[in-house]
Design goal:
Pfam families: 3D. The protein has about 220 residues and is an alpha/beta fold. The chain has six helices and six strands, in the order H-H-H-E-H-E-E-E-E-H-E-H. It has a domain of about 120 residues: RlpA-like domain (Barwin-like endoglucanases), CATH 2.40.40.
Length: about 220
């Protein structure tokens, strides 16, 4: 009998000890266990979603592409609004053949880790925003020229290319999928919002993006 009582007593003490640890931990952390479980479930679901949308990629790479796709959708809405709200006939127009490129090896021959990766001819890093970096022939569109490209948005000439001669421009996109799915190759009328002076800096591009989409009277 005494052995049985001792066994029950040990079990009870163990249970009480575990309960005390739980109460102490939740009091100090102020985070209930069920909330932690919820956070972890959200993280697992986020990982599962990213990987299922882009199978075969690492989680980090898949999430990067997801963010780019979300930003691209928002950019499309902005461009549509600009096309409707602004009288583009007030600007000089030029018909060009427009293609798309990325910072990656298939477009530039450079890979992450290369000191010149993602850096344009002007020294400005590639950028996809309200005002994006594009490549053009400086003889037609000098460095710093701001164009409005229907279906793409504002493009600031920061780069050149051996194949970009005459009435050709190359538009920067974050991913190769965006190049193929959103653009490809098009003949398009572009509007010259401001003619460049042959120079452009990273600070000037940032200032353009800070000014916002409606301030086009540069």
């Amino acid at each position: 009998m005494s052995k049985r009582l001792k066994f029950y007593k040990n079990v009870l003490m163990t249970v009480l000890f575990i309960a005390a640890l739980y109460v102490t931990w939740t009091t100090l952390s102020q985070v209930p266990v069920n909330e932690l479980i919820g956070v972890e479930n959200d993280r697992i679901e986020e990982t599962r979603t990213a990987s299922s949308i882009h199978p075969g990629l690492g989680v980090a790479a898949a999430k990067t592409i997801q963010r780019a796709e979300t930003a691209s959708a928002s950019m499309g809405e902005t461009v549509t609004a600009l096309e409707k709200e602004i009288n583009w006939s007030q600007y000089p127009v030029e018909t060009v053949t427009a293609t798309g490129y990325t910072a990656n090896a298939e477009s530039t021959g450079k890979k992450p880790g290369d000191p010149a990766y993602g850096i344009t001819y002007s020294g400005v890093p590639v950028h996809r925003n309200v005002y994006s970096t594009i490549a053009a022939d400086p003889a037609l569109f000098p460095m710093g020229t701001v164009l409005f490209i229907p279906g793409y948005g504002y493009g600031v000439v920061t780069d050149t290319g051996s194949a970009i001669q005459g009435a050709k421009i190359d538009l920067y996109f974050d991913t190769t999928d965006q190049v193929y799915n959103e653009w490809g190759k098009k003949d398009v009328d572009v509007y010259i919002v401001q003619k460049g002076n042959g120079e452009i800096s990273e600070e000037e591009l940032a200032a353009l993006n800070d000014r916002g989409v409606h301030e086009v009277g540069l």
